[in-house]
Write a structure and sequence with these properties.
363 residues, alpha+beta, Rossmann fold, OB fold (Dihydrolipoamide Acetyltransferase, E2P), 2 domains, six-stranded mixed β-sheet, 22 strands
């Protein structure tokens, strides 16, 4: 089978990684997860910098790693292109020579390497900066040169490790747009590690979420983000998620019942999730009486100004984090502050009910 196939296990004293996935040719897989989830460890395995306890890594039918056969191709023989948070350009070389380094190392003539470098500098919109050294480039310009360098080596697998994390708010959107254009034209598999859900939305065909070294969500990006099964993924997507047990027209979460729209086939007593946006939440000091809306008792944990709204973060049923977006006037009128007991109120029509995989729930 063509593309990338990965099935590896790694055990350490306080950490384990157990992943099994595929990336098709030309496909971008985004890997998200909290700190310590195993994202960097996974990239190290793919790059050949770390050999797991057990595993197989194959690309287009070529075996890079097979612990059963004691096969482990070194990094320089895998044909991996890496774009990391920092550009890591050679400081003594011009941008053009940085990009030409890969082709030259692969045996290309100086003229041919320069030709390749010029093409990729043009592709990444920095053709006019070829004669500059890294110290003369802005962060965004340096990252574009680093992308050109990664692609000039004609990698068989492209690894992107938080490529926009070090860029400022002005440079990141432009670089994200460039990556979208470039990756769309690539025929090689790409694995993108990011903490920013917007990167996944714009760049990735599929999304894989790691938690504690395990794959907890995996599927088309839009599907995973619109139907998150885990609270971490829901927070990334800007959604609230409460897991529990399905009942008729809703979900039992601890002592609370959340009513909503059942959007997928779901049997009673099956593990289920209620998903709703922070903008759909109203905050009240007292529980509304005689209302058909959902009312959840929560404890305010933080207030975060976000432009025209304030995000009220709170701990809900089963100590799950929830969020509400309200106006600054509402915060002042309610006199909200951390540690106070309030009610989050949500219309049932704003709540989507989904089944969840696995047997765990918040009930």
């Amino acid at each position: 089978m063509s593309g990338l196939q990965v099935d590896v296990e790694l055990r350490r004293a306080e950490f384990s990684l157990d992943v099994d996935f595929e990336v098709a040719p030309g496909e971008v897989l985004a890997v998200l997860g909290p700190n310590g989830a195993g994202k960097s460890t996974l990239l190290s395995v793919l790059a050949g910098q770390l050999v797991p306890d057990r595993g197989v890594v194959e690309l287009d039918g070529t075996t890079w790693l097979d612990t059963g056969r004691r096969t482990a191709a070194p990094t320089h023989r895998r044909g991996v292109g890496l774009l990391a948070q920092q550009a890591l350009l050679f400081p003594n070389l011009t941008a053009r020579d940085n990009v030409a380094f890969g082709p030259r190392a692969a045996g290309a003539s100086k003229a041919r390497a320069r030709e390749v470098a010029e093409r990729w500098l043009a592709e990444t919109d920095v053709a006019d900066l070829g004669g500059r050294r890294p110290s003369q480039l802005s962060g965004g310009q340096a990252q574009r040169v680093a992308l050109a360098r990664a692609l000039a080596g004609e990698p068989r697998l492209l690894l992107l490790d938080e490529p926009l994390a070090a860029l400022d708010v002005d440079a990141a959107p432009a670089m994200r747009g460039l990556l979208h254009q470039v990756l769309h034209r690539q025929e090689t598999p790409t694995v993108l590690v990011t903490h920013d859900v917007l990167d996944a939305v714009v760049l990735a065909d599929r999304l894989l979420v790691l938690q504690d070294g395990r794959v907890v969500e995996h599927g088309p990006t839009s599907e995973v983000l619109s139907r998150p099964r885990e609270a971490f993924t829901a927070r990334l997507a800007g959604l609230n998620l409460l897991t529990g047990t399905a009942i008729d027209g809703g979900v039992q979460v601890g002592e609370e019942v959340i009513s909503g729209r059942v959007v997928e086939d779901l049997g009673v007593r099956e593990p289920a999730a209620a998903v709703f946006a922070p903008a759909a939440v109203a905050v009240h000091r007292e529980r509304p009486h005689g209302s058909p809306r959902n009312a959840l008792p929560v404890v305010v944990s933080a207030l975060e100004p976000r432009g025209d709204v304030v995000r009220v973060r709170a701990e809900g049923p089963t100590e799950v984090g929830l969020s509400a977006d309200v106006t600054p006037a509402a915060v002042a009128e309610l006199g909200l502050s951390a540690g106070e007991d309030v009610w989050f109120v949500i219309k049932a029509t704003e709540v989507a009910i989904h089944p969840v995989s696995g047997g765990s729930s918040g009930a």
